[in-house]
Amino acid sequence: MMESSHFLEGHQAAHRTLSNRLDKIFEMANGVCRQLTSLDAKVQAVDQVIDLYAHYNNCNSIMHSLTQLKIYEPVENDEYSGSNSGGNGGGRKRLQLVNQSKFILNLCGMLFMRLNTFTDDYVKHILNLTGDLNSNYNLQRLMLYWENISSTYRESTLILTEFYEYIRQNLPQVKRKFGAFTDITTVSLINFLQTHMGTKFQKLVEVFLNNDRFESHPDKTTSDSFLHTLYCHDVLIDRDRNQRFQEFYFEYLSNYVENEVVIPMDIDYMKKLKKQLELNAKITLSISPTMIEKANDIFLQHTILKPETASQLLEVEKDNIKFHSVRTPERYFPFPKENFSLLKIAFESRGRTFELERVFKKLTRKILKKAHPDLERLFSEACKLILLVSGYPNFGAISREEIIKILGGSLNAMELYVRFCESSIRKVNRDRNLGDHYAKSPSIFQAPLLLEINATVLDLYSRSLFRRAIMQGANSILKSLKDPDSLEHQLINFFRDIYGTSSEFRNLEATTEVILKAFYLESSFEKSSSDKNKFIQPLVFEKKMVPEIYQRGGNEDVVLPHELIDSWEEFMKHFHSIDKKPELKKVHPVYHLQHCEVSTPYKLKSGKSLSLELTLYQTCLLSLFNDYEELEFNEIMNKLRVTKSTLDVVLKSFIDAGLFILKENAKYTLNKNFSPDKRKVKDGKLRIPLLRPVSSSNRDRSNGNVVISSQHHEGHSSQWKQELLKACIVRSLKGESGGLNLPELFTKVESQLRGISIGEFKDALHKILKDKFIRCRNDRYMY
């Protein structure tokens, strides 16, 4: 018993000795921490606060004890202990040397228990100095002085490092189980801080994150050390959601970009975004380099990778494309495409190219819809959209295909382009000051190139030129064709550059020559005619040079006013006198193509008299009312000798315009209170359109109803011709296994049926598709 008692006393004494010495070390650590009487208090270095000599002696004593100390314990289940004991239990027990590792592990437990108590007290002290944690200001203070707080704790626990490292280096079990002492103390500080702060700890983390994002000159040392610690030790931030720091950071970053990042949408958007990404990468790098890629990807997901942002960015860059004068097919000019290039890389690298294509198509539809019906703006926007993606064949083809589709197909695009040319030429002829603007207009010269419009467009342009020659007369057209500075002259030269070898351009040149020849004949007649017979400006064309569409109108005879009859007779004398073989030629008027300018007594606000632009039939009808106050329908028809259908349409046009009144006695009379629609008066002239009837159906004179044809007159032709055209289309596709696109099919059909119009072709094609004789796939027609 005595030996056993002495053993226990010796064991407890050693334990107490080591425990007391350990307590002395923590007392010294407390001495360092007690200096922090406020969050911003300056703390003296360890060697100025404690007696390092005494501290090292204490540590040496502990380590010496660990080396020299031998402790024994009774052997359990010792058979020898009871062999000679009899019944009184007085036998001696055998003792064995205790493995030193057990004692040292026990000592480590003592160390960590005291460390936890020390850290717990320190955190409570810090939070007490901080104040109310519901106050964002106090959390800001905690963040601001974090370096002072953590360095004080680090200095105080530094004196324990030598003792811990001795144990760790000399005992493999400890080395395997525990890491570096600085990691242990850091995790302990964070854990106790989180325990005491509860949900406010998340707010504190956000305060540190916001310090980097919102401050002009963030305290990088303060934020980096804290956030890096959270990342390195994979700290559990939100225990309810089991959310660790990295996941918490990415969620915070996502909310930050979505709600706080505002980059002005202008041409420099990408430059400003790049700066944001650089800052984001720099901040994330201080936490961990491995997080940079994901962090920047989150930034992009909430900016340029959003469809609406990508669309706005494309539109901004489109609007900033600058044009210069381009009149030859070789000259393209550079412009900044950085935004689109970066967008393409961003989408493409993530396998989302299809999304960018969809964004671009949607934007194209929106822009062109907004531009309609302003043709100049429509083609300008179309050109910019193609130039926006130039250099990228894939997107170039997509943009061109989408634009053509929106414009209604290749043929409709050609028709719109010709209308744009007409409008531009008319504006320049009216105001020469606009010449430079349209001569440098990018869309009028680039549309055929960028939209890849083929030479078929020249057939439409030839038809337009012929119509304008009839409608506008020599004064306007001669200037357009002969003046090198005129827009039309420049357009024809431009067409020569890109279509010069085509048969369509040769036809355009032939049309131009025929028109000029007709104007020269008209000019010679004007010089030779008497003043009293200058009522007509005759244009004579060979029938084969007149576009087929203008030959199809019903050339119905009409009784002309005597002034026009006299002028016509005088012109025929002049023609026979100058033509070499007049007996071989038959000249006859084409009434449905003739237009007249008629002066009226109606006054405009400017004081000028209103002039009416009328067809010959309208002019003949109006001239009757120089001699009559009112006339019935049949009286008019008998005096003019026109059909019911023609007279129906002419009267309807005057009634719709308000020029005529149908009285209760079924008689027509001039409206003495006629007031023209000011919006339709241009240059003092009012054009009264003459709609065409579908058929000469019975007329209801009481209400003046007339059946009006579609405004697309080209599509109406006789039934037999329609059937012939349909058969020709089907036959043309039978031998084409890969099918034909619309322009190719039109060209092939036109080569077999000369003189067909685009309208007729489209009507026939639509009917065949509807009857399912052919099909259309990816804009290609197949049998």
TrEMBL record:
Source taxon at top rank: Eukaryota
Cullin family profile domain ranges (all copies): 412-655
InterPro entries noted in UniProt: Cullin-like_AB, Cullin_homology, Cullin_homology_sf, Cullin_neddylation_domain
Pfam families per UniProt: Cullin_AB (PF26557)
SUPFAM superfamilies: Cullin homology domain (SSF75632)
SMART domains assigned to the protein according to its UniProt record, in alphabetical order: Cullin_Nedd8
Gene3D superfamilies cross-referenced by the UniProt entry: Cullin, Chain C, Domain 2 (3.30.230.130)
UniProt similarity note: Belongs to the cullin family.
Protein name from the UniProt record: Cullin family profile domain-containing protein
Species: Zygosaccharomyces rouxii
